[in-house]
Amino acid sequence: MEDRSEYLRLFYASLVCAAAKVSDPRIEQAFRAVKREPFVGPGPWRITLGGHPYVMTPNDDPAFIYQNTLVALHSAQGLNIGMPSAHAYWLDGCELKQGETVLQVGAGTGYYTAILAELVGPGGRVHAYEIDKSLADRARGNLKGLPQVNVQPKSGIAPDLPEVDLIYVCAGAAQPAKAWLDALRPGGRLIFPLAPAGVLGGMLLVKRPDQGAVWPAKFRGRAQFIGCVGLQDEEAGRRLSEAFLQGWERVQSLRFGDAVDDTSWFAGDGWWLSTAEAEPASGN
Q: pTM for this structure?
């Protein structure tokens, strides 16, 4: 039923990108191009709008998965293929270009890896890291037709990460990993959920300047993910929950060091988020 799947994807991509109000038409093209069926596995499926109970589809009609919904990979663990419109919105903010190199942390079964591969094209590169070996194995099988994709069954906070233009994180963290910051090229972008396990946090987009300890940063809305192993902190999670009750939209920069001033929205260990704008610099 390939023709029907393609027909459903045309509607689905338009629905997702309209909901996300994306400005880059290539994102809609990517959602049209990537079949969802291999990544969700055989139906019926458990789907949810997020924050609501799962609903089991009555059968394996692919129309059920071409909606703006999350699809469970492991419902008991709350592990899903994430909300398409949210990812479309985040990707739009990343301004990904043909030929760029991406590191994805938390690839799952590889659905958004395939979307990233469409956006960077055959001249680009996507390094997909997934710590769960069974998921990594599924992702490798699903993505075997994409030579620009490399699936790694290991942690995405390892110290030997490749240099990249974009780091796209699909696991919640209490702080940005040093390995991510070190792996970014000047002008590179990091987008990650500042949201430890169990915390409704926010998707933080950071850009690395050519030099300096002040990086432009802003939240691209609220977000909650399964936790990133190695980047959890219960006390930081409690403080972040309190911080998100006030003024998270005003964050404009990520700063390093302990010299926190009165523009601080949240302070971590050696880093903090400020409501003050980063000074313009080349490479932003």
A: 0.95
| Distance of alpha carbon 152 from alpha carbon 246, whole angstroms | 38
3-state secondary structure of 263: coil
Helix (H, G, I), strand (E, B) or coil at 105: strand
How many other β-carbons are positioned within 10 Å of the β-carbon of residue 245? Answer: 7
Q: Quick check: 219 and 251 in contact, CB under 8 A?
A: yes
Residues 6+ apart with CB under 8 A from 280: none
- How many Å apart are CA 80 and CA 63, to the nearest integer? 18
Instruction: List all residues 6 or more positions away from 225 whose beta carbon is below 8 Å from its beta carbon.
Output: 82, 106, 170, 171, 172, 193, 195
d(CA 129, CA 158): 10
Q: H or E stretch including 249?
A: none
* H-run or E-run covering 56: strand 55-56
pLDDT tens digits, one per residue of 71-99 = 999 998 889 999 999 999 999 999 999 99
- Rounded to an integer, what distance in angstroms lies between the CA atom of residue 134 and that of residue 191? 25
